[in-house]
């Protein structure tokens, strides 16, 4: 009996401590892990959103780039962090695809995290170095088929959105190409601009400015409709690659066990950031839009992740190429 009382008292104390912590949250800076290199599209989206969230939360949000292994290194790092709301992850569609691509992950994709909400869904573009010979998507396809041993396709590692889109491209044209992995498409873009790599798929959040400035070549956007920021860029369908659609949704996660009061507070802050006029305007310039408020919630992100794991599993299994 005495032992039971002591246990009950200890539990009450713990609950109280947890509740009090959540009530005063946040009391110190928060780290938001981006699982790709600085300067890339995920990094850009994160910094725009984190800036507004940090003002709302009254604490600094430090963006930390933990690139490598297609985003799984950064996700693994957050899965192992203390579930106290001070370490978060902003990841994209790769959270879903890596669940199948990696047969051994150091974390459980669905059960290893708490959810904050969806952030944005970004179109992808197929782009090349400025002086790459092909002038449109049809000639790109012919060219890479004829030169498959010398053409290089950049990506951000197995599990990255650029990898998924590149894999879809190679399977659509039934040609295997030489791929060059980077820790993110930030550094891949640097090499594309420098002419060290030939072409890649990447989010409009990294390619719009370069396509408009004609510092790279843009062949197509991978959405059903053209994007307002790049009205002259045809869709893949228009340019001769039917049914070639992929867009890159992003979400914010916390380690499993993070108190629901904290994820709810973060979700509220995310909704505020997504309605911020500067965020809306910058997203528009970068070819994207904020997720609707109802999607910037834990339940919506969880449902999206579950449905996307189910959606991509058969596609990846059919390609039969895994990370291990
Ligand atoms: N765009 C990258 C990808 O391929 C990631 C990044 O650098 O943000 O997933």
Any overview of this molecule?
- This protein has 12 helices and 9 strands.
- Helices cover 45% and strands 19% of the residues.
- By secondary structure, the protein is α/β, with parallel strands linked by helices.
- Strands 1, 2, 3, 4, 5, 6, 7, 8 and 9 form a 9-stranded mixed sheet that branches.
- The protein is globular, with a radius of gyration of 21 Å.
- It has helices at residues 2-23, 41-57, 72-79, 94-101, 137-146, 161-172, 185-194, 204-212, 236-239, 260-275, 277-285, 298-319, and strands at 30-34, 61-65, 87-92, 113-129, 152-155, 178-181, 199-203, 216-221, 247-255.
- Helix 2 packs across helix 10.
- Strand 5, helix 6 (161-172) and strand 6 form a beta-alpha-beta unit.
- The structure holds aspartic acid.
- Aspartic acid binds at residues 36-37, 40-43, 94, 156, 160-162, 184-186, 202-203.
- Aspartic acid (ASP) is lined by residues 36-37, 40-43, 94, 156, 160-162, 184-186, 202-203.
What oligomerization state is this entry in?
A: single chain
**Helix fraction by DSSP (H/I, runs of at least 4):** 40-55%
Residue-averaged pLDDT, rounded? 93
**Elements, N to C (H/E):** HEHEHEHEHEHEHEHEHEHHH
Strand tally: 9
Q: End-to-end span in angstroms?
A: 53 Å
Largest sheet: 9 strands, mixed
Taken as a percent bin, the fraction of beta residues is 15-25%
* Uncertain ranges: 1-18
Label the structural class. Answer: alpha/beta
Shape: globular
Which ligands occur here? aspartic acid
Enumerate how many helices there are, as a single number. 12
**Estimated radius of gyration:** 21 Å
């Amino acid at each position: 009996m005495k032992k039971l009382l002591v246990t009950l008292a200890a539990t009450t104390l713990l609950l109280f401590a947890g509740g009090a912590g959540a009530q005063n949250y946040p009391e110190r800076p928060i780290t938001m892990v981006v699982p790709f290199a600085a300067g890339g599209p995920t990094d850009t989206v994160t910094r725009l959103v984190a800036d507004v969230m940090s003002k709302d939360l009254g604490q600094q949000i430090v963006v930390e780039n933990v690139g490598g292994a297609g985003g799984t290194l950064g996700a693994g790092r957050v899965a192992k962090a203390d579930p106290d709301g001070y370490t978060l992850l902003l990841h994209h569609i790769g959270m879903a695809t890596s669940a199948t691509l990696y047969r051994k992950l150091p974390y459980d994709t669905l059960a290893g995290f708490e959810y904050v909400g969806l952030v944005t869904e970004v179109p992808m573009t197929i782009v090349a170095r400025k002086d790459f010979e092909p002038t449109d998507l049809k000639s790109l396809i012919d060219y890479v088929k004829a030169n498959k041993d010398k053409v290089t396709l950049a990506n951000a590692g197995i599990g990255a959105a650029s990898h998924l889109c590149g894999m879809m491209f190679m399977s659509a044209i039934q040609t295997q190409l030489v791929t060059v992995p980077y820790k993110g498409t930030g550094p891949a873009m640097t090499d594309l601009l420098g002419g060290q790599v030939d072409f890649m798929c990447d989010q409009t959040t990294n390619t719009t400015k370069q396509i408009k400035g004609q510092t790279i070549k843009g062949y197509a956007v991978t959405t059903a409709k053209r994007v307002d920021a790049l009205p002259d860029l045809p869709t893949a369908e228009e340019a001769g690659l039917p049914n070639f659609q992929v867009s890159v949704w992003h979400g914010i996660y916390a380690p499993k066990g993070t108190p629901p009061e904290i994820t709810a507070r973060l979700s509220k802050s995310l909704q505020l950031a997504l309605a911020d006029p500067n965020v809306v305007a910058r997203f528009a310039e970068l070819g994207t839009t904020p997720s609707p408020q109802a999607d910037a919630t834990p339940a919506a992100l969880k449902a999206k992740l579950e449905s996307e794991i189910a959606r991509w599993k058969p596609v990846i299994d059919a390609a039969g190429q895994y990370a291990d």
